[in-house]
């Protein structure tokens, strides 16, 4: 049984912790899948490369409004897929190679296989190549094992077959009919991709809206636009799935009784769950929350001294920038256990890369009400700024919430072109305590650029000063 100073489980964000300050530590890295984790291989990066390609394909849908007569002749899915993974796969391979062979990693042993705790600070690794299990121990651990898609237990679903975001980007051709189960991030992004590439997309949602966690105005605008583009089935429960001659059929229960959707591909996008169960963290005494996340304190410490957790395994945010931030915190705290620094979870933005794009930071209006905050609201349509005229945008807007007395921003919600880029100065203002009036009038805003959307929204806030 080999003993280490540190064992790192998972090569997503946790893989970025090691640097030359750890060169005299004896370290093991355990990875059961592809090096680089979810974001690089099956998450943020390939999805955004597909989304950008979808945006390019879709320009012809709106070109007529500019007097431009354009036509989409074909999308060569296999070429798109191979371009994307032709860039990503070598990055994963070189990350693996670096850990295995580079002199920087002379003190690091890589275990390629599935880790599972079998006792206090004791890990059994089942090697992917089928060789014998190994049991290893360590003084310190970083638990960065991420999460996996949640698949609802629906009769017929497993036997008929389905995709998740883990597999759907590697398919061989765009199916004629794609049905997506769920109305969240992944549904919104892949519906845009497959519809832009020519598939007939059906989205099956339990509730009455897509992206329900967003501000209600954003969610309802997005739902309205989604219903114009896709066959959006709201208030539907999936009862069963069965195979048909041409593909699969989904039996749904909805407001008008039962109905059937025929499809070629089912994409399950009903959320993700942390891998704490498969890792059996309980066997080493690590506590979990009701949602199955590894419980951590503000310093990313678990309930067992010397064991840290980060990213999707412990964070319900399930965002790469949060996992990366937490990895930096864990790195500091491993090196400075007596002067630990806390993670900063005050102002966490996110974006949904669909069409139109969506970006959010801070509280939604419904959260502001629930929390009893005193707030004022301002809206600004893209249609009301010069660049919005240039883009002929008629549906996008920015919505801000602020404290009327201090002018400090409480939340910002944008739906429309470049929303994830436009929101960044608002994230900065919230992070550094810049009030809305100073932000609006204490700097120049390039005219007639899109950030005038933000300038105008700030000026529209009915502040008490
Ligand atoms: C389709 C999709 C799109 C996304 N898009 C975005 C986006 O645009 N922006 C954004 O911020 N976030 C996005 N995310 C979320 C983001 O990918 C995750 O928050 C992030 O990758 C989490 O990083 P992590 O290091 O915690 O986990 P991961 O990157 O999942 O790494 C965990 C690693 O641990 C390994 N592992 C798991 N269990 C074991 C075990 N028992 N033994 C050994 N190894 C194990 C896994 O194989 C994996 O490599 C997206 C997610 C998905 C699914
Ligand atoms: N742009 C980004 O940052 C990005 C993109 C993709 C994914 N992600 C991350 O990945 C996570 C997972 O994405 P997701 O879209 O799967 O989750 P999600 O939580 O965004 O959406 C899940 C959807 O599935 C529905 N649902 C849940 N259980 C269901 C069931 N049994 N039957 C029918 N519907 C059900 C929910 O109501 C919701 O509409 C997200 O939480 C997000 O943090 C981020």
TrEMBL record:
Keywords, ordered alphabetically: Disulfide bond, FAD, Flavoprotein, NAD, NADP, Nucleotide-binding, Oxidoreductase, Redox-active center
GO molecular function, one term: NAD(P)H dehydrogenase (quinone) activity
Binding positions (NAD(+)): 182-189, 271
The Pyridine nucleotide-disulphide oxidoreductase dimerisation domain, residue ranges: 348-457
Binding site for FAD: 48, 312
Domain FAD/NAD(P)-binding: 4-326
InterPro entries: FAD/NAD-bd_sf (IPR036188), FAD/NAD-binding_dom (IPR023753), FAD/NAD-linked_Rdtase_dimer_sf (IPR016156), Mycothione_reductase (IPR017817), Pyr_nuc-diS_OxRdtase (IPR001100), Pyr_nucl-diS_OxRdtase_dimer (IPR004099), Pyr_OxRdtase_I_AS (IPR012999)
Textual note on the cofactor: Binds 1 FAD per subunit.
Cofactors demanded by this protein: FAD
Pfam families per record: Pyr_redox_2, Pyr_redox_dim
Protein name from the UniProt record: Mycothione reductase
């Amino acid at each position: 049984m080999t003993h280490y100073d540190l064992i790192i489980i998972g090569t997503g964000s946790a893989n970025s912790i090691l640097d030359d300050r750890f060169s005299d530590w004896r370290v093991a890295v355990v990875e059961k899948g592809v090096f680089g984790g979810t974001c690089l291989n099956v998450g943020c990066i390939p999805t955004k490369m597909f989304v950008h390609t979808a945006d390019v394909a879709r320009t012809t849908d709106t070109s007529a409004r500019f007097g431009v007569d354009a036509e989409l002749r074909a999308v060569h899915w296999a070429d798109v897929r191979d371009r994307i993974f032709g860039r990503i796969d070598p990055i994963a391979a070189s990350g693996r190679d670096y850990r295995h062979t580079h002199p920087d990693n002379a003190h690091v042993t890589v275990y390629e296989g599935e880790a599972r705790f079998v006792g206090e600070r004791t890990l059994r690794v089942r090697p992917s190549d089928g060789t014998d299990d190994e049991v290893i121990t360590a003084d310190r651990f970083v638990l960065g094992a991420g999460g996996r898609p949640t698949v609802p237990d629906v009769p017929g679903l497993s036997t008929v077959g389905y995709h998740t975001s883990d597999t759907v980007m590697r398919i061989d051709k765009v199916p004629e009919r794609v049905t997506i189960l769920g109305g969240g991030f992944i549904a919104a992004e892949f519906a845009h991709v497959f519809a832009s590439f020519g598939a007939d997309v059906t989205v099956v949602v339990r509730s009455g809206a897509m992206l329900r966690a967003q501000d209600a105005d954003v969610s309802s605008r997005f739902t309205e636009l989604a219903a114009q583009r896709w066959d959006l089935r709201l208030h539907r429960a999936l009862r069963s799935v069965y195979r048909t001659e041409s593909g699969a059929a989904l039996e749904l229960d909805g407001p008008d009784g039962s109905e059937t959707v025929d499809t070629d591909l089912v994409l399950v996008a009903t959320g993700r769950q942390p891998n704490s169960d498969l890792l059996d963290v309980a066997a080493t005494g690590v506590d979990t929350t009701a949602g199955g996340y590894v419980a951590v304190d503000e310093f990313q410490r678990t309930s067992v001294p010397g064991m840290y957790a980060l990213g999707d395994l412990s964070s319900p945010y399930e965002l790469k920038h949060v996992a990366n931030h937490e990895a930096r915190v864990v790195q500091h705290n491993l090196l400075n256990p007596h002067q630990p620094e806390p993670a900063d979870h005050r102002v966490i933005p996110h974006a949904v890369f669909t069409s139109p794009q969506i970006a959010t930071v801070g509280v939604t209006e419904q959260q502001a009400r629930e929390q009893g905050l005193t707030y004022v609201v301002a809206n600004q349509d893209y249609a009301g700024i010069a660049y919005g005229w240039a883009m002929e945008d008629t549906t996008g807007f920015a919505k801000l919430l602020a404290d009327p007395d201090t002018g400090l921003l409480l939340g910002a919600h944008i739906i429309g072109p470049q929303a994830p880029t436009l929101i960044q100065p608002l994230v900065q203002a919230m992070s550094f305590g810049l009030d809305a009036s100073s932000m609006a009038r204490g700097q120049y805003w390039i005219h007639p650029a899109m950030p005038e959307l933000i300038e105008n929204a700030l000026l529209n806030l009915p502040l008490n000063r």
